[in-house]
Design a protein that fits this description.
The complex is a heterodimer of chains A (246) and B (300). Chain A is mainly α and 246 residues long. Chain A has helices spanning 8-22, 24-41, 65-81, 85-91, 98-134, 146-176, 180-193, 203-212, 217-239; strands spanning 46-51, 56-61. Chain B: One of its GO terms (molecular function) is ATP binding.
Amino acid sequence: MSLTRTNLAKTIKKQYFFKLKANITSFTLLIGVQLLALLFSLGGVASSSFGSSSIRLNTQYYTADIVIIFTLIWAFVMAITITTKPHRDLDFTFVTNRLSSSFANILYLLTVSIVGSMMAILSDNLLRVIIYTFLDKQFYSSTMGLQEFIMGISITSFYVLMVCSIGYFVGTLVQISSLFTILLPALFFGSLFLRPSMDEKPIITNAFEYYLLESSLTLFIVKIVITTALFFTISTSILNRMEVRQ
Amino acid sequence: MRVIECSNLTKTFFTKKALNKLSFSIEENKITGLIGRNGAGKTTLLKIIAGFIKETSGEIKVFSEKPFNNLNNSAHVIYVDDHMSFPSTIPLLELLKVAESFYPNWNRDLAMRLFEYFSFDPKTYHHRLSKGKTSTFNMIIGLASRCSLTIFDEPTTGMDESVRKDFYKALLKDYIAYPRSIILSSHHLSEIEDLLEDVLLIKDGKTYLQMPISELKEYAFALQGNNGEVFKLTSDKEVIFKNHIASNVTYVIVKNDGSKNLLQQARHAGVEISPVPLSDLCVYLTNETNGGIEDVFNEN
């Protein structure tokens, strides 16, 4: 009996499309989360007032940045979700091995990042329209060029993907032992107060600044790509040994 | 060619040994029945074959390759039970198309005809199916995928009588049309004995016996008659099961050692000889104790 060899790349491709179909509701959830974020954005992020005896000027600032924050949280949750047992079992109904499953997961998370970021950046326009239409105020807005638009989407995608990789890693750890569900939040909140000495910033702030305050685009991409790859590699190698459908 | 070869296969869950130095092999294109009591290690064995879980020690080869985390193995082996998981967002008909994209030997025609015969609603979802319907749908996936090794672990859970019969017929017909290796694990041996060619009986994670079903049918016979006469006849035989039917009547199942004059002796002594139904035999062979449930209620 001759048995055909199975092609890894083709399997990953099939699994990826299967995953997109199976997780289609996550994109519905994304819309809900972003609309909620838009609702919060309607309050404005900052305001300033200026007045004299004859004139009074009140400025309210609006931004859809909060949509990006919500998108990051959504992506983090999505990444954890696909490491859970029901999602892993789903792959094993059809042809798979752990490597192809992980690659398909990473491709899916990449899609999640790009779609999420695109919608987050575009929601900025929706916010403008809402404010222009419904709030009875003089409206000024900065315009976004095509270059800025693409740049915005790409940078946001990088952030979202990194958050996904962290979520994927966290989810993987929890699959090893449920002790991590207590340990990881404890570590996170603990590190908020952990500082090298009293007059220095907490370590976690330094970590955030390391990624958020990078001014060189190339360095930023290098940092993000290396971090993301590291988390995905560790997770994949852990999941590669995991038993399924026990 | 051997489809499965395994030697000294052991699987430990924490401290419990689910499989204990299990050794056996299965030849190509046969329908093998995997029989054993609850907790004997059937499902553990099948999941190792399917590559879901990894053996603790020992060696297993499926199509000459180690099954765990093996992409080829995954494509050649399908494991069907009532816990197969399907996404809740894809309707049934679409699921068949997804399965088709994964399995190279998929028979769309067969899948569609079975799908219509069992009157599935193409637009409904897998998680909304009843227990029996879930098993039926999973069975369709298992049959239509036409994998070189098809494993059915308790495939008839929740199916009603007529669907069970249909399933066995469908399995046999498709096996004849497209011969492949099939492992069938079931508690209803009486239902599947006409289907099987080989039987693998496991007990406490070990191979208890493996033989063609025709041999198993002659493996043992039952004697029933007067206590003393039965005792005399069976004193040099291997007793598998013993039960006192009445105060002076005993029913004994003994292993067939091929002695021919026993039949005559028995007839002479007025002891009745009968064949043992396979399902009963397997129950007695795998019993933990030589008594029965009656002993639990028998205070003496």
